[in-house]
Amino acid sequence: MRCGDFKESYLEDEKIFQTWFVKFWLGLLLVCLLLFPLLADAYMLYIANIIGFAIIGAVGLNLLTGFTGQISLGHAAFVGVGGYATAILMTRLDLPFWVALPIAGLVTAGVGMVIGIPSLRVKGLYLVIATLAAQFILEYVFMHWESMTRGIRGINVPPPRIGGFVFDTERSFYFITLILVFLGVAFARNLVRTKWGRAFVAIRDRDLAAEIMGINLFRYKLAAFAVSSFYAGIAGGLWVAFMKIVTPEHFPFSLSIQYLAMVIVGGLGTVLGSIFGAVFMTLVPELLNVLTGATKYLFPGMDQLFIPLKEVIFGVLIVSFLIFEPHGLAEIWNRTKNFFTLWPFSY
Amino acid sequence: MDIIPQIIVSGLAAGGVYGLIALGFVLIYKATSILNLATGEFMTLGAFVCLTAMTQLAAPFYIAFLVTLAFAALLGIVIERIILRPLIGEPIISVIMVTIGLGSILKGLTHMIWSPDYRSFPKIFPPQPLDLGFAIVPSGLLWGFVSAVVCTALFTVIFRFTRTGLAMRATASNQQAALSMGISVKRVFALSWIFAAMAASIGGVIIGNISGISIHLGNIGLKVLSVIILGGLDSIIGAIIGGFIIGILENFAGVFLDAFFGGGVKEVVPFVVLVVILMIRPYGIFGKALIERV
């Protein structure tokens, strides 16, 4: 009797859905996700959408930081570029959302490659500082290039539509988000097991060794920046179409930190980890929100503490994950799974 | 009156303070190779502690100042011991992110304890401005400059001429050799964090005196990154000279470029300078050219 999951070829080991058990549960999850809008109220759908955007952004950042090892502190600015590109394309050129979104993704990929150029000369600490500078410069551009971005007044964006159907509610938008999250995750999951993905990991592990093995650092580092920014651009475009407005203060430095926190808390270098991280880091503040709302009558003045409390909890989460669980939620998930594979006879 | 000397003089004065804060980065980087992105929050916290000691406890300035220094030392040692020591030898992203997380915690705590309102400092320097003939230096900037220079000189003296400073320099140049010569590297790490927290706090107090404080004071900490990159991450003299250069450049840009770019250029120029330096000379003016190119 086979009492385990044995792989007999490399191909089998590389499969994404390795067993029927996994396929069954993932199928069930998909069905639940499809049925979710029938049961949920507007607030829950709003959160679900926000989580979806966060997943797309975090998967993108994880491809850059987790897989390729290039730390970026400017991810929020890329999300902003995508958002502004979508908004400008839709309002100035009257392009439909479905055309504007991919173009915005490509524009962001281009900007990301420009920001990525220093990564060829500098690395580690210096790259962190370079991307941080990019964040502030782009924020400045959003704010002050008034003829294009309309400064702090922002741009109002029409909702996406197909024929006569307008996606202007949380419920209808949920399906766009779901499909794009699905596509994004599937692409990332497949990318990391191709030649490109392996090149990314090789660069992360030791760039000199990677170059000696024939990996063109110039090409792959820029590719990592481009893919990562493309994801950020899509996340930004969705966000803007969902919120129906874009203003500069939506993409602050703290959002970049939030993305990095998602990737770290979720688990660097795993696609699953970025999903966990995005869900977790979006839900924690919302839970706090609910808690402060509920205890408002018990402790008046609590709601003023909400924003700083959020910041403290963010910091504590980042620090404690780095110290106690550097591989993130994905590792906890793996450990739990392994514990149950042969349970209750694990010895 | 001619405007250019005036710009240079106030740029120099602001640059002195930048240099002092940059010292907070450099001291830690030199000894431990950690870039402490929470330096800005150290500043804010120091300034608030000093302010509270002066207003709530009605302490005279020199006592409040000593309290601030003691607090900064405590903060430095606690953070080094609890947060940074478990991460020795971890990859660079962990160490950077931990300082960012730390910054987030400190900022949130500052916000919780002292509400986000803007406050002004009680005046501690004589109010009359200094007239140099070709330019006028406002009193806040003048005294800020003087105290920044004094503090920087003090730190340089400690670093150069004392036994502790020697131990710190030895650790910076080669940790293992320092260990084998009987230097306690752990103690040196703790000391660098203490000194850096003190430098940042003093910087915060000085800036608070010039322009008042709010919880967003820490953003200056990020601006100062351009100073240390310009001067070289591991160079004390570079931090000071970089501070002056950035201070002057920023003032020039504020006066001459604002009209073209619709205001606020002063805030973004340091970052543009930063990118340019990273492109052409990443190790800065005085830094060690030990960058590995790939």
From TrEMBL, chain A:
Statement: the UniProt record of this protein carries the keyword Magnesium: no
CDD domains: TM_PBP1_LivM_like
Database matches in InterPro entries: ABC_transp_permease (IPR001851), LivM-like (IPR043428)
Protein's cellular compartments: Cell membrane
GO terms for cellular component: plasma membrane
Keyword vocabulary terms for this entry: Cell membrane, Membrane, Transmembrane, Transmembrane helix
Primary location group: membrane
A molecular-function term among this protein's GO annotations: branched-chain amino acid transmembrane transporter activity
Highest taxon, organism lineage: Bacteria
TM region positions: 20-40, 46-64, 71-91, 97-117, 124-143, 173-192, 222-245, 257-284, 305-324
Pfam short name (any one): BPD_transp_2
Membrane topology: Multi-pass membrane protein
Protein name: Branched-chain amino acid ABC transporter permease
Organism: Desulfomonile tiedjei
Lineage: Bacteria, Pseudomonadati, Thermodesulfobacteriota, Desulfomonilia, Desulfomonilales
TrEMBL record, chain B:
Keyword Cell membrane: yes
Membrane-spanning parts: 6-27, 61-79, 91-114, 134-159, 188-207, 268-291
Places the protein is found: Cell membrane
Gene Ontology biological process terms, A to Z: amino acid transport
Organism, scientific name: Desulfomonile tiedjei
GO cellular component entries: plasma membrane
Similarity remark: Belongs to the binding-protein-dependent transport system permease family. LivHM subfamily.
Keywords tagged on the record: Amino-acid transport, Cell membrane, Membrane, Transmembrane, Transmembrane helix, Transport
Topological category with respect to the lipid bilayer: Multi-pass membrane protein
Listed GO MF terms: transmembrane transporter activity
Full protein name: Branched-chain amino acid ABC transporter permease
Primary residence: membrane
